[in-house]
Amino acid sequence: MAIRQGLLALLSQGPRYGYQLRAEFETSTGATWPLNIGQVYTTLSRLERDDLVSPGEQDEQGRVVYTITEAGRAEMERWFSTPVAQADRPRDELVIKLAMAVTARADVRPVIQAQRTATMRTLQELTRAKRANAGEPAQRLVLDSMIFQAEAEQRWLDHCEAVMAASPQTQETQR
Amino acid sequence: MAIRQGLLALLSQGPRYGYQLRAEFETSTGATWPLNIGQVYTTLSRLERDDLVSPGEQDEQGRVVYTITEAGRAEMERWFSTPVAQADRPRDELVIKLAMAVTARADVRPVIQAQRTATMRTLQELTRAKRANAGEPAQRLVLDSMIFQAEAEQRWLDHCEAVMAASPQTQETQR
DNA sequence: ACAGCCATGTAACTTGTTACATGATTTT
DNA sequence: AAAATCATGTAACAAGTTACATGGCTGT
After folding, report:
1. Domain Transcription regulator PadR C-terminal, which positions (chains A, B) (predicted)?
2. pLDDT in tens, A111-123
3. CB contact (8 A) between residue A115 and residue B85
4. Which nucleotide does the CA of A1 lie closest to, via C1'?
5. Whole-prediction pTM value?
6. Which of A157, B55, B64, B175 has the fewest Cβ atoms within 10 angstroms?
7. Candidate CATH numbers 1.10.357.10, 1.10.3300.10, 3.90.79.10, 1.10.10.10; the one for domain B2-86
């Protein structure tokens, strides 16, 4: 439920065509999440199906320009004014992995260790990307968010390790 | 890609039937993400389709017991030993929302404000849930993760507001 | 008798995602 | 002439999710 609303938000600034939407979406959110062009069109047809946008005639260059509808504008207002709830968020794969490792497995530490290394590397790349990023204030915020999240993850991993160390792991499970 | 692997991990401890899997999944990960029982069965049939589990005969009580296959075990080892990469994670709706608000809209502050209130409330509920939670070490870690994430979100929201205050918002867009 | 839990399953749908086909225009 | 970029679109699938149908068993 994010690309859908993202494209809608871009369309609320004025009519756009597909290719243009991808470009703007990527300059807003950055290269970290590349957006496949095909998805722009699938998403646009779903938005059209739901009467949130409507395609106009082709322009002089033969491009299909989409316009947001009143319902689309309302939906967008709703989106901006409604906070993202805990329940809306997808299940976090890492959290499930560690939870399962704790319940199912003996040795969680290598899992934590591998993740920590990966997250640290991610953090370095993010910092580098942030140094490189000159303009685009929105992109900078996206990078910052990722940095904050990665740091929180590191802290959580440390915390998990500490907890594991405190309560000695029950013996090696079967296999 | 999380429930799938989660159920597989539970099955790696020994044969289980559907209803039991939901119960164990929920005691591991907690009530924050309730798992619809229907999904257990759809996921199980997909795991079966991919030869990662195989259903046995019904037991004395007529329950269908699933067993992990060798391929399933391998897949699970791979899952545990491979860290979750940045690119694996789903797009964060809140981040996209703020990025879009920055590019498209004039006033980001009410969006930030609404989110901050919601996140703060979430944080209080999580703290309460943590106090209430007596046993289940895995569940406690899940709660901790959510708390760490919510705190990081608060910090990021503060940061966004600070950045917005520093660089005065370009004028009210159309509409 | 009836409520409620245990237990399995299916149909239908959503979003996200990619691979591929197709053609126009632009650059080298 | 070839390569790259602009531009649109479709088919196909994965995973997540819910609503619903069905039946057995248990406690009141």
Report:
1. 91-164
2. 999 999 999 999 9
3. no
4. C15
5. 0.91
6. B175
7. 1.10.10.10
